[in-house]
Input
Amino acid sequence: MAGILFIISAPSGSGKSTLVSEVRKQLTGIDFSVSWTTRAPRGSEQDGREYHFTTRENFLQMIAAGEFLEYAEVFGNFYGTSRRSLEQARAVHHDLLLDIDVQGAAQVRAALAEAVSIFVLPPNPKVLRTRLRNRSRAEGHADEAELYRRLSEASKEIENYKEYGYILVNDILDRAVAQLEAIVQAERFYRNGEPIAYRPGRVLEVAAACRQSNAQDRLQPVLEAFGIISSEGQPQLNFDEDHDDD
Ligand code: ADP
Ligand code: 5GP
Output
């Protein structure tokens, strides 16, 4: 049985890491690719667990040696997925989940067209800002400049939602976790014939509703809130960021 490659992307602070860690508690047979990065560890992050933290010099050497399946510069730091992650998951027939940005996702899709891609959206800019702020406070740092940098990148990243097969709006955490689990189970069922143990009809229904082509009703208010489309569904040229204080 071939392992399935799942790509998950989202604007920073949307809750992607939270979703991934919840789903990994529920499902077996899926590995998480620990990326390499030149950014400094944040909060309680540990080398080898959230990321392999390394120097820019070493990262450049790894690029030159062709060690990355994909890599990109995000917020001024390099991030990359090593080919080894994929090889290791394949060797044990496990699925592999990549938490990577939109640039990296495009590279993986170009190399491995069979990858399943999932885009996670926060419900609106205000919620995103609150989550980013809460996270930095919980991690013991409150870098407002970094927070606004990540917020201003969010709408640009969201415009790439069209490239992804599935869309998740992470509003209520339990619901988003159930949707991500359903997508993994549905793909295992369709690609590998793996049976779904509990309420298979419901699981397939939940996953189908997350397909981009079926998710327009949930997408529309998010795209409007981020100023990507107008309420008439037309592309918006100017993005007026919501500056309300929490
Ligand atoms: P990302 O990995 O996308 O950058 P995180 O998983 O670190 O985001 O989540 C950012 C913050 O938002 C964290 O403090 C997390 O606990 C919180 N969070 C994530 N999902 C939800 C949710 N559905 N409701 C409320 N808070 C959430
Ligand atoms: P953070 O610094 O918040 O952990 O991550 C910042 C961004 O880098 C997120 O969008 C995350 O998905 C992305 N990222 C993490 N690892 C990789 C990777 O290996 N490759 C690419 N292209 N992006 C990554």
About this structure: Residues 12, 35, 39, 70, 72, 74, 79-81, 99-101, 103-104 surround guanosine-5'-monophosphate (ligand 2) (CB under 6 Å). The radius of gyration is 18 Å. Residues 5-29+95-225 form a domain with the Rossmann fold fold (CATH 3.40.50.300).
